[in-house]
Structures are given as C-alpha cells and as structure tokens.
Write a structure and sequence with these properties.
Structural class: alpha+beta
Largest sheet: 5 strands, mixed
Number of helices: 16
Order of helices and strands: EHHEHHEEHHHHEEHHHEHHEEEHEEEHEH
Radius of gyration: 22 Å
Low-confidence stretches: 156-161
Distance between the termini: 57 Å
C-alpha cells in the first residue's frame, strides 16, 4: 500500500482557507456574480436569529467579497424569478443552493417518519396528524402565510420559543418538505407549498437514493472544506455518524476523498483531490461565529491553534471575551477576537473589546483591523466607530 500524502499544518491552513475563497482578493465592487460564486463554494449559508451585529447569513459574504448590497442576497433568496437558494436544514437552518434540493429529500422523508428530527416535534407529528393536515390545507387555500396568520394556529406559550400548535405544525411540515419558506417579513418565515415557490425544473429533478444523496453531500463538504476529518465532513451538512461512516469508505474507493496525514492531527484525515495548494494566503476578514471556516470548533483549534466558543449564552460575569466575538483572520492565521455591536439607532459600530492572540502584538494587526472595521461600518451604513480607548490611536478609525 503506498504511503499517504503528508500535509504540513501550514499547508492544511492554506488549503482550508482557499476552499472557502479567502485566497482571492475582494472585488472592487461586489455584484450578484460574486455572491453566486461564493455560494457555489460554500453551498449554503447558516441562518441564525442573533442580530447584535447583522444577521448570520449576511456575514460570510461580507467576509469574502466585502461591502456588497445586502439586497442582492434578499433577491437571491426570495425573489420569485431570481431565486438561487431555498431554506431547509443543512447546517442547522440554512439558505442552501437551489440545485441541491433533491439531495435533501431523503432527510424530508426521514422527518415524516419522525427520524432525524428532535423528539418533541416528532411526537407532535405522530399525535397531531389531523391538525397538521388541516394547517397544510389552510396554506394551500390561503398561502403564503406566517404562523401568526393561521386561523387555527392558537397562541404561543411563554417566550418566543414557546411555540403555538400552529407553529409546531408548520415546523413539522417544513422538516418534511411539505411547505417551504416563500419569503420572510423581518425575520419571520412566511410559508407556502413548494410547488408555488420552487421552480418546476427543481421539483421535477430525479430524487437520488439516500445513499447517493449522502455521498454527494460529503463530496460537496470536502470541496467546501478542502481538508477535513470524518467529524468535520459529516458536520458540514449535519449527517448522522453512522451514515458518514458508511459512505466515506465508498468515496475513498471512488477517488472522491484522498486519505492524508496532517502534522499534529490524529485519526483519519481526507483531502479534496481537486484542492488548491496556494503558496500563500493574504486574507483579511472578520468572520462570524456562524461562518463555515469556524463551524467545527475542534477543526478550528487544530488548524489555527484557536480555541473558540461563542459566549452569547454564557452569563455576563463568566464571559471571557464578550457577547458576540468575531475571529479576525489576517494572512493565514486567526490573530484576534473582536466583540462587536451595531448601534443602528445611533449610527455607530461599537467595538466593545479587542483580544489579540497571545503571540500577536497589537501594532502588528491594528492597521488591517482598522481597515476592516471601516469597511464594516460602511457596509452597515454606520457613520461612526467607537473603540476601546487603548486602541483608538492604533486603529485610526
């Protein structure tokens, strides 16, 4: 048996950054074409409700192509004739490339059987089938509608997480692929039947078997990651461990995954056979906690020697770095954490704190970080930037 390819840690970092497009310079003026190209690389954008800076699905595009018009993404996601993505459970709730919809039909069928769906919703699906059908019938008759517009929806209980029965029914139908997101009002989903939202050529595309869909999702994962462990590969589209373990040897046999060894990494590691090996990467980007480059935290730690945790749900007195800390990528490394907030009413980008990594001197990163903060403020239409006193002269913002 031939020996495996040996990859240095520095090479692995560059491969991973290049797979996500960080090796390319930002365009002078980002267009829909640049947005589409980024989606072709990452395949999906994670959606999250946190809006302290900007919604999660907008940030990966900014990190790669700069100050683009966010309206372009709205049109890409929800315009009836220009839609390039659909909403479904990819890596958590996600905007996923529209052409990949057939690859998720096995997950939709599993959800109908109560599999791959969280327990409370699965139980609701078993016990309330007649009610769920009535909700679907109402959407067919009246849609597109939001959960609060259902005539039979009922009221939520407690906090905004306290879903009404109508919302539960809609979420079950969403998991099962029987409804989809037609648009959003603010951040609220507006639901409709897939045949009234998605193009007929997508709906009529052949449905692959679960096994072939899983193989293709893993192929897409390695293209988006460049280099990855089994855990990282299955995490990208949140595949079950047993499914990934069955499919990965098949992909190795087919030549779609190349087993390699990486300096300092334990266990099997796989390389995209078409991966780029740039000699150098000169990235400059603030990336959100929901960016694919830091999704899988063990991979982030191995690649960048950067232990990263989001502290939103950590009590304030126990936070180490801040409520919404963004990693700052400079060159080929993650060099700092920057706790940011958009004060929209005051037109101000607030930099609560900046924490350089232990091996990094503030003066080494300040000029680039200042440029990035100015670009972000411009993108978010914020006229001023407030920084910690000790950083003001360094950043010159």
């Amino acid at each position: 048996m031939p020996s495996r390819i040996q990859i240095t840690l520095a090479q692995a970092r560059r491969i991973a950054l290049a797979a996500q497009g960080f090796h390319e310079g930002r365009p002078a003026s980002a267009t829909r074409r640049h947005l589409s190209r980024t989606l072709q690389r990452s395949h999906l954008l994670q959606i999250d409700s946190v809006n302290v800076l900007v919604r999660a699905h907008y940030m990966p595009l900014f990190s790669r192509i700069g100050a683009y018009d966010r309206g372009l993404l709205e049109k890409t996601a929800y315009h009836p004739k220009r839609r390039e993505v659909f909403e479904y459970w990819g890596h958590e709730a996600s905007l996923i490339r529209l052409d990949l919809q057939p690859l998720f039909r096995w997950r939709m069928e599993s959800a109908k059987r109560g599999q791959g769906i969280y327990g409370g919703l699965a139980r609701f699906g078993r016990e309330k089938r007649a009610f769920i059908e009535a909700v679907r019938d109402e959407i067919e008759a009246r849609g597109p509608i939001a959960a609060g517009e259902l005539s039979i929806g009922g009221k939520g209980q407690g906090s905004w997480w306290g879903w009404s029965d109508g919302k539960r029914a809609l979420e079950w139908l969403f998991w099962a692929g029987e409804v989809t997101t037609a648009t959003r009002r603010g951040f609220e989903r507006v639901y409709d039947l897939p045949e009234r939202v998605l193009p007929s050529e997508i709906l009529n595309a052949p449905t692959p078997s679960a096994e072939e869909a899983q193989r293709e999702l893993l192929r897409l994962s390695i293209r988006a990651l460049g280099i990855a462990s089994e855990r990282c590969l299955r995490d990208y589209f949140r595949l079950e461990a047993q499914d990934a373990k069955a499919r990965i040897p098949e992909l190795v046999e087919a030549g779609d995954l190349t087993p390699v060894t990486v300096e300092g990494w334990n266990g099997p590691v796989y390389l995209d056979p078409q991966a780029k090996f740039p000699r150098r990467v000169e990235a400059r980007a603030l990336v959100s906690p929901f960016d694919p480059i830091v999704w899988e935290r063990t991979r982030t730690e191995r690649l960048f020697d950067f232990r990263y945790r989001i502290e939103i749900y950590t009590p304030a007195e126990k936070r180490e770095f801040g409520y919404y800390c963004l990693p700052f990528v400079l060159g080929e490394k993650i060099v700092a954490r920057v706790d940011l907030k958009a004060d929209r009413a005051g037109g101000n980008l607030i930099v609560h704190s900046i924490h350089p990594e232990a091996s990094v001197k503030p003066e080494e990163i300040a000029p680039a970080l200042g440029d990035e903060l100015r670009l972000m403020a411009e993108w978010l239409n914020l006229g001023s930037i407030t920084t910690p006193k000790e950083w003001r002269k360094r950043l010159q913002v």
